[in-house]
């Protein structure tokens, strides 16, 4: 019998006899699955068996809907993947375990980045375990196709449009993108960041200030989004982000714009990054760091006690595990005291750019990926942007008016 399977059998025999731990998440791509395998193996070594409730749909909107439905039915999973302001909302509901003992043991107050503490700590202390820090304003470039087109990496959106038009003339997919609201909205977010800069982005899409939403910068970003829509053939409806990444890998697509979970899938497909496919700041956003962060909450239920939650949190807070998980996931660690040795050059650049951006006040939360406003407003705005992208009859005025009315409701 192979050593591994013997190990797994022995580990499960020595399992803490409190059964399996159910985790609800939306990590279903190749890279996400590989990262989850490392999490599952790590918990098994602690005698904890993981049961997956994986909900299809990148970005997590569907997963959050399922979590709400299950909480209403009194049937919560033990652990749930979650992001941003939702963490505090679940704490206010009062069905989330605190994990202050784990935070104290690993000295989170000292070793977490301050923005990580703000997101995962409330007046009750730590109510979530942060695990990844993703950068969203990345442009992923297929160098083989770029060389065929005799182009250099675009640094501005005019250069980006020129490159995409040349790619289209050569029957390449100019920009690989999934046809889902959160992906199109994330593309729009990068356009807003590029047209108005970090402060404008923050006032318009994080603070939802009316005079920034109804502005020339927003209209320019909308016009550019409409131009992209006309430039790229509608790809498979509801195409997932990782299907778009596959087109980049197979030399069918020149660019993909999005978070470094894309790196996780590239590495899981043994792509040589950054040699074959390179990572560059999205056009006109070189000094900005648009981020989102994954955390886990531990649901308070009769069959998942505070003690059990702390046992799982202790295991997941382990620095070696956190380093390994992020290396595979494509993200960077949320702890300042975790070394990046063995990380991909794109992750090392991400970490460097994050430190620089944080010092200059240029690190901003992603509204479209659950880090800035309440999920209802976020999903409503994402849907309006997607509707504008898909339907050329929708005017700039109409989508601006709708976003303003959503903003008023928050
Ligand atoms: C984000 C999440 C990432 C990745 C991405 C695509 O919301 O933070 O970890 O899963 O969705 O699904």
Topology (elements, then pairings):
Blueprint: H1 3-13, E1 20-25, H2 30-45, E2 49-54, H3 61-72, E3 79-82, H4 86-93, H5 100-105, H6 108-111, H7 114-120, E4 121-122, E5 125-126, E6 129-135, E7 138-142, H8 143-148, H9 157-169, E8 173-176, H10 181-206, H11 210-213, H12 216-231, H13 241-249, E9 253-257, H14 261-268, E10 277-281, E11 289-298, H15 306-317, H16 319-329, H17 345-359, E12 363-365, H18 375-390, H19 396-408
Parallel strand pairs: 1-2, 1-3, 8-9, 11-12
Antiparallel strand pairs: 3-11, 4-5, 6-11, 7-9, 7-10
Helix pairs in contact: 2-14, 2-16, 10-12, 10-18, 18-19
This protein binds beta-D-galactopyranose (GAL).
Residues 26-27, 32, 58-60, 83, 132, 134, 241, 261, 292, 294, 369 line the site of beta-D-galactopyranose (GAL).
Pfam family, one: SBP_bac_8
Function: Part of a binding-protein-dependent transport system for a sugar.
Keywords: Signal, Transport
Explain what this protein looks like in three dimensions.
With 410 residues, this protein is an alpha/beta fold. It has 2 domains: 192 residues, D-Maltodextrin-Binding Protein, domain 2, CATH 3.40.190; 202 residues, Periplasmic binding protein-like II (D-Maltodextrin-Binding Protein, domain 2, 3-Layer(aba) Sandwich), CATH 3.40.190.10. Helices cover 52% and strands 14% of the residues. The chain is built from 19 helices and 12 strands. Strands 1, 2, 3, 6, 11 and 12 form a 6-stranded mixed sheet that branches. A 4-stranded mixed sheet has the order 8-9-7-10. A two-stranded antiparallel ribbon has the order 4-5. A hairpin with a 2-residue loop joins β4 and β5. It is globular. It binds beta-D-galactopyranose. Beta-D-galactopyranose binds next to β6 and β11.
């Amino acid at each position: 019998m192979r050593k591994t399977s013997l190990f797994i059998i022995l580990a499960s025999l020595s399992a803490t006899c409190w059964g399996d731990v159910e985790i609800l998440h939306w990590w279903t791509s190749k890279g996400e699955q590989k990262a989850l395998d490392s999490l599952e193996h790590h918990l098994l070594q602690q005698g904890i068996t993981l049961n997956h409730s994986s909900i299809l749909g990148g970005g997590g909107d569907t997963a959050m809907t399922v979590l709400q439905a299950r909480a209403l039915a009194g049937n919560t999973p033990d652990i749930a993947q979650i992001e941003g302001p939702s963490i505090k909302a679940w704490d206010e509901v009062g069905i989330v375990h605190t994990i202050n003992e784990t935070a104290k043991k690993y000295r989170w107050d000292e070793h977490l980045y301050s923005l990580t503490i703000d997101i995962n700590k409330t007046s009750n202390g730590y109510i979530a375990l942060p695990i990844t820090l993703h950068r969203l304003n990345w442009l992923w470039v297929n160098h083989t196709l770029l060389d065929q087109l005799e182009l250099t990496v675009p640094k501005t959106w005019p250069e980006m449009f020129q490159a995409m038009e040349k790619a289209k003339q050569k029957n390449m997919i100019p920009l690989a993108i999934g046809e889902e609201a959160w992906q199109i909205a994330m593309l729009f977010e990068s356009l807003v960041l590029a047209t108005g800069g970090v402060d404008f982005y923050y006032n318009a899409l994080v603070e939802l200030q009316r005079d920034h939403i109804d502005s020339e910068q927003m209209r320019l970003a909308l016009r550019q989004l409409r131009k992209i829509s006309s430039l790229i053939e509608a790809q498979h409806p509801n195409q997932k982000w990782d299907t778009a990444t596959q087109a980049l890998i197979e030399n069918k697509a020149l660019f993909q714009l999005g978070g470094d979970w894309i790196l996780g899938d590239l590495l899981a497909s043994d792509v040589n990054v950054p040699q074959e496919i390179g990572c560059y700041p999205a056009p006109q956003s070189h000094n900005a760091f648009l981020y989102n962060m994954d955390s886990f909450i531990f649901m308070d239920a009769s069959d998942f006690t505070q003690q059990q939650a702390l046992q799982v949190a202790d295991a997941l807070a382990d620095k070696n595990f956190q380093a390994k998980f992020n290396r595979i996931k494509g993200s960077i660690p949320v702890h300042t005291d975790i070394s990046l040795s063995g990380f991909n050059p794109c992750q090392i650049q991400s970490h460097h750019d994050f430190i620089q951006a944080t010092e200059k006040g240029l690190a901003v939360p992603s509204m479209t990926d659950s880090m800035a406003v309440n999920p209802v407003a976020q999903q409503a705005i994402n849907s309006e942007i997607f509707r504008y992208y898909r339907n050329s009859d929708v005017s700039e005025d109409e989508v601006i008016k709708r976003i303003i009315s959503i903003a008023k409701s928050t």
